[in-house]
Every structure is written in C-alpha cells, then in structure tokens.
Amino acid sequence: MTTRSEGMQPHHPELPPLTPIRGGHHRCTKCDRIIYSDPKVAVAAIIPMDGGIVLLKRAIEPQLGKWSFPSGYVDRGEKLEKALEREVLEECGLVVDVIGLVGVYSDEGQAVVLVVYHADVVDGELMAGDETSDARVYAVDAMPELAFEHDDRIVQDWLEGLGMRRQ
C-alpha cells in the first residue's frame, strides 16, 4: 500500500491508503475506486521577436540555469491559450496573441504533456520574471543549448510549419 500521491484528488475525508495497480494508477483500500494518475498539462510559446525567438534562462529546477521557451502548467479548468498568455506575461513581461498550434509533445514515462503554440507579441517589454534569471532573443541558428530534450524538435516543427528548415 501507499499513501496519497501529490495531485490525487481525495474522495474520502480521512484519506485511506491506496494500493498501486497497473499503469501507475492506485486503488482505494476503502471503496475499491481506481484513482488515476493523470498527466499534467503544460503550455509553451515560441515567440518570434526582432529576427529571433524569445528564450528564458530558468531560475528554478528542473534544468536550472538552462534556456527554454516561456512555459508553465495549466491550472485546472483553465483554457490552454489563456494559460499560455498568463505564463508568458508572468515569465517574461510580454502580452501575446496566440497564432496557432506548433505541436503536442509527450515522452514515455513522463507525467507532462506539453502543448506548444506560436504566439506574437502585442505589448509589453521583454524582461526576466520570478522563475527566470534572464530573457533574451536568439537567432534560431545561434541559440544556446536548450534545457529539455524535445526543445530542438519543437523549434524544427515550428520552422517546418513556417515552410523553413533549421540550418
């Protein structure tokens, strides 16, 4: 048996122990209900600006000190595009308009499903937010090493969507 995992919704006030079952899910020892360990949805933005794209240097784990796109988790009940607009404003001070979907990314064994959008700047000034230590615009062919394994694939997918290829 195991105790309640982070993110699982209680269905009994006294929080009975759970028994692990297939697929990373759990079964309540009191009522036999299956508690699903659903993935967490995150959003990220590729934001073209001044001939490059906006990248942020992460001030938090995972990948502290590495560069990535403005991104963050979607709150329960929040529309994906609104979550993206909120996260971009919080992380780098930009107000954006969501233009279109770049792709949806997930990796075997990982709990996060990442939904990436192309977004254009409509207002604001690029600056580091609370979870970032720096915010810069990099040309696609001069980007620093990116934080996450799928980040290069995301850039390539975005370029292909524009009818371009990475050099």
Which helices and strands occur, and which strands form pairs?
Blueprint (H helix, E strand, L loop, with lengths): L17 E3 L5 E3 L5 E2 L4 E7 L1 E2 L2 E7 L8 E2 L2 E3 L6 H13 L1 E13 L5 E13 L7 E7 L12 H11 L6
Parallel strand pairs: 4-10
Antiparallel strand pairs: 1-2, 2-3, 4-8, 5-6, 6-7, 6-11, 9-10
Describe this structure in words.
The chain is 14% helix and 37% strand. The model is unreliable at 1-8 (pLDDT under 50). The protein has 167 residues and is mainly β. It contains 2 helices and 11 strands. It has helices at residues 80-92, 151-161, and strands at residues 18-20, 26-28, 34-35, 40-46, 48-49, 52-58, 67-68, 71-73, 94-106, 112-124, 132-138.
What is shown here, in short?
The protein is mainly beta. Helix content is about 15%, strand content about 35%.
Alpha-carbon distance between the termini? 52 Å
The CATH topology of the largest domain is given as Nucleoside Triphosphate Pyrophosphohydrolase
Please compute the radius of gyration using only Cα atoms.
19 Å
Helix content: 10-25%
- Identify the CATH class of the largest domain: Alpha Beta
H-E string: EEEEEEEEHEEEH
Extended strand count: 11
Biggest beta-sheet profile: 4 strands, mixed
Mean pLDDT: 89
Largest sheet: spatial strand order: 8-4-10-9
Low-confidence stretches: 1-8
Main structural class: mainly beta
The domain tally reads: 2
CATH superfamily of the largest domain: Nucleoside Triphosphate Pyrophosphohydrolase
CATH architecture of the largest domain: Alpha-Beta Complex
Shape: elongated
Give the DSSP E fraction (strand runs of 2 or more residues). 35-45%
Q: How many helical elements? A: 2
